[in-house]
Every structure is written in C-alpha cells, then in structure tokens.
Amino acid sequence: MVRITELTRIELESKGIEPLRFNRKRTNGYIRGFNLSGVIRGLICIRNRGCRGKAPGNRDPGVSDTPRPEYNELSYSPKRKRTLKVTTTSERISKLTSNHHLSMTPNPRVIYAKSPGDGAPIPGEHLVSDTSRTIDLDSVPLNGGFLTKTLVLSPEPYMRDRMRDPSIPSYCPTFVLGEPIIGPGVVVVVRSEKEGVNVGDYMYGQTTWEAYCVQPYIEGRVRWDPKNWAPYTVNLDDAVPLRVVPNPNGAFPLTTYCNLLGTPGLTAFVGFEALAEAKAGETIFVSSGASGVGSVVIQLAKLKGLKVITSVGSEAKISYVRSIGADIAFNYKTRDYSLALNEHGPIDIYWDNVGGPALEAAIDATNRLGRIICCGSVADYNVAPEKRYGIKNTTYIFRKSLIIRGLLLADVDPSYTGRFFAEVPALVAQGKIVGQEFVTDGIENAPQAFVNMLKDGNDAVGKPVIAVAQS
Questions:
Q1: Are 73 and 36 spatial neighbours (Cβ–Cβ below 8 Å)?
Q2: 153 in helix, strand or coil?
Q3: How many C-beta neighbours within 10 Å does residue 135 have?
Q4: Helix, strand, coil: what percent of the chain each, to 5?
Q5: I need a surface site. Which of 17, 20, 224, 266 has the fewest CB within 10 A?
Q6: Where does the Enoyl reductase (ER) domain lie (predicted)?
Q7: What DSSP element (H or E) covers 263?
Q8: Do domains 106-259 and 263-429 have the same CATH topology?
C-alpha cells in the first residue's frame, strides 16, 4: 500500500489527469492496487512527449468542459499498457439528448391562430399547419385515458362557426386560440389505460386535428361554463364522443366513417326520420345535394318514395346526384333558386343546408303544412352578421302554416342514434345507400381542404375528407 504524495498529485493534475479517474478504491488518502513504479514511468512518459491537457486553473471548477485527448495512455507496468477514455460533461449530455430524440415522434397539427372575421379562413394566417411538436409514444402520460393515432379527419361546415369572435353568441362555443381545431375523425388506439378501450381499436368521433392525441383531449377543449355562453349554446366537444367502430376489414374504406357512417350520415338519418314526416309521393328539395349530409338525405328520400329536387355547384356534381337518385338537379351558380323551384315545384319538404336565398325561395315554393328542416347555413358562415342575407317573405310561415325546425344532433331523441347504427350500416353493405369521398392527403394540407369545402372551391365530387396516416 503506497501513499501518493502531494507532489505526485500536483504532477498528475498539471498534466490534465485527475487521480480519481483511475477507478481504484480510495480509502483515507490511500489508493489500493497501484504499482508505484508504473505510475512513475507513466509520469516520465508524459513529460517526454509534452502535456496535451489543460492546467486546472484554466478549467471550470469541479468539471472540465474542454475536451482532453481522447485517450490518456498510462503505463501501469513494464509489460502491460492500458487506455483510459476521458469524456467531458457536455459530451455525456449530448449523448443523452441524442438518445432522447431518437424516441420522439413528429406530431404535426392544425392550429386555430386567428379569427377570420368577415370572410373565409386563410391557410397560414387563420389556420396554421404546425410541425414543431413531437411526442414520446412510449412514455407520454395517459392519466387513465388512451393514446390515439389519427387516420382520417372530416372537415365540416359547422366548424367555421367555431372560428367567430367569442363575443358573438351562437349554438356552439368557439375554438381556443393557439390550440388545435376539433372535429370528427377516425383514430386507432396506440396505448390505453382506459377500461373497454383496447390497443388496435378503431374509433370515430370528435378529436383534435393532430397526428397523435391523448384522449380525452385537453388541448383545444373549451372550459365549459354555461354562464359564459348564450342559453342555447351546446357543448359540441361532448356531442359526438369517440366510440369504438367495427374494423371494416377491407369491406369499405375507413373514410366511410367520415361520410355515410359518420356525422354526415347520422345527421341526415336522424333529421329525416325525426323531423321530415315524409310520405310517399311528396316532393323534397335538398340544397347542397352533393354534400355528405345532402347526398344521404337524397337517398333516404328515394327509399321512402319521394320526388327529389336538389341544387349543387357544378355540372360534375349534377351528374353525381343524378346517379344516386335525384330526379331534378340544377346548378345554383347558373340558375336562380326561385326559377328552378317555380318550374319543378311546389315542394312539401325543404332540407336546408344553405340558408340565404335558397331558404327564401323554398318558403315561397312550399305547400301548406310543409316542413322545413334547417340543418345549416353555409351561405352565411363567411359573412359578418350585419351583412348576411335578410329573408323577406317570413309572412308565408303563418299564412301556409309551415313547420320550421332547426336540427342539432344533441337535441334529438337518442333512440334515433341507436336506429342509425342498427339500420344504416346494413343499407351501406347492401348498396342501397352509397357515397363518395374526395380525399386530400396529408394533415399539412388540411387547412386548404377545409377552406375549399367552405367555398365550394373545386369541382371534385364527394364528401371532403383528409387522409392523415395509414392504420
């Protein structure tokens, strides 16, 4: 057992070598297991070739962040040479950080950045594609919930109303600025701590517009307090909760859950069955007949034996709605609503997806005791309240004893929802109700796809959907 002298310690440190790095057990100032002659030979060796390290005074106290030579060769005996790798703190931190990033997965999302006010949203200004986020799929806390991967998203017209100024009352709360927008979609479960939700389950319902999400989602969720909203405001975040849906196993694409078997199909079925009071031989006018909701209403009406008139926005869409059963179809961009309905009416039922001039023309053309179902008002969504179309023939409502009903899924008897899931999938499987989707690939293109849907911005036929990922 040999005590290392103070002179020896200084010699070691002056050459950039810390004695405690020899990895020998040290007790009461002694280092066990050293061959003194080997240490001395090592010092002589260092003297002869010059010191390549830094003196202690030029290093940070305690820990060196200045790289020393990668190897310090210390001769412990005349016959044996060992190497000692010296790593700095910064190198160790860099290695740990690098390994951490390897486990992170990109989590792109669509952010609600600013209210559009009067006019359509502008991609990159009001709806922003954000690629800065990442997520650790293996260790992100679930807090009793479950982690989902987004497969398909469904842009819907009502989502535009959630982009208004919060001071303007409406039937739905606004989106949260700086957070992902929320809407219907198809997801698959990646991890789960929730009973009844299993890895690999497909689910459909409200979700955030991002690649991965811990459910129930927190980001973007409105802090619901009825005192902060108009008395007729509905909490849409809970109106269509995620529910497990059957794996189609190739029978139909997953996009069908965002069309015929999703919110559009459910809205059409529930509204038609609960409110239309349709009878064979009657005539129904459906505005925006090529939309997800409108196309299903057309087919339900034909199954009931009704005559169907519909309006669309292009010649290609005229061909499409005729292929699914519409008797009369016209392009509202080239033909006035009133002229078309005067020629092909009168009507007994009007399914309103548009509002504005279409609703006014339908009131004129509706028979006594007619039914009007107001499902949407896409003509007004991008227009400031004070600039919206003013209907001038409301006196016909009482003169004809018309029944006008607004439609929100949250207000309809839940039994109709049960009937939908019991009846409509079978009709789809039998080909009695058919649909078509216009697919946009990539969540980075979601803002533009949403705007195109609002503005009827292309001649593409089918319910707009966004394919985010493969299952």
A1: no
A2: strand
A3: 18
A4: 35, 25, 45
A5: 20
A6: 164-466
A7: helix 263-271
A8: no
Beta bridge partners of 74: 82
Residue 409 contacts residue 240 (beta carbons within 8 Å): yes
Q: Please give the biggest Cα pair distance in the chain.
A: 116
pTM here? 0.72
Amino acid residing at 370: G
DSSP string, 296-334: HHHHHHHHTT-EEEEEESSHHHHHHHHHTT-SEEEETTT
If we measure between CA atoms, which residue out of 181, 174, 176 comes closest to residue 207? Answer: 181
Q: Which residues contact 434 (CB under 8 A, 6 or more apart)?
A: 260, 299, 324, 428
CB 203 within 8 A of CB 145: no
Q: CB of 63 within 8 A of CB of 89?
A: yes
Provide the b/e sequence for 431-463 (b: ≥16 CB within 10 Å). eebebbbbbbeebebbbbbbbbbbebeeebbbb
Q: Are 152 and 102 in contact (CB under 8 A)?
A: no
- SS3 label, residue 73: strand
Query: Which residues pair with residue 412 across a beta bridge?
Result: none
pLDDT of residue 16: 54
Rounded CA separation 322/430 (Å) = 19
Handedness of CA 182, 188, 194, 195 (dihedral sign): positive
Structure tokens at 471: 């299952």
Neighbours of 114 (CB within 10 A): 15
Which residues make Cβ contacts (< 8 Å) with residue 398, sequence separation at least 6?
none
Q: Is 156 helix (H, G, I), strand (E, B) or coil?
A: coil
The CB density around residue 181, as the number of other CB atoms within 10 Å, is 24
Q: What is the CATH number of domain 106-259?
A: 3.90.180.10
Average pLDDT per run of 10 along the chain, which is 471 residues long?
Answer: 45 50 41 47 50 47 46 41 49 48 85 92 96 96 96 94 90 91 96 95 95 86 72 77 87 91 95 97 97 96 98 94 98 96 98 96 98 91 82 95 93 87 90 93 96 77 93 76
| 452 vs 465: CA distance, rounded Å | 11
322 Cβ partners below 8 Å, 6+ apart? 329
Phi and psi at residue 462, to the nearest 5°: 120, 165
User: How far is 328 from 46, CA to CA, in rounded Å?
Assistant: 97
User: What CATH fold (topology level) applies to the domain 263-429?
Assistant: Rossmann fold (3.40.50)
3-state secondary structure of 66: coil
SS3 374: strand
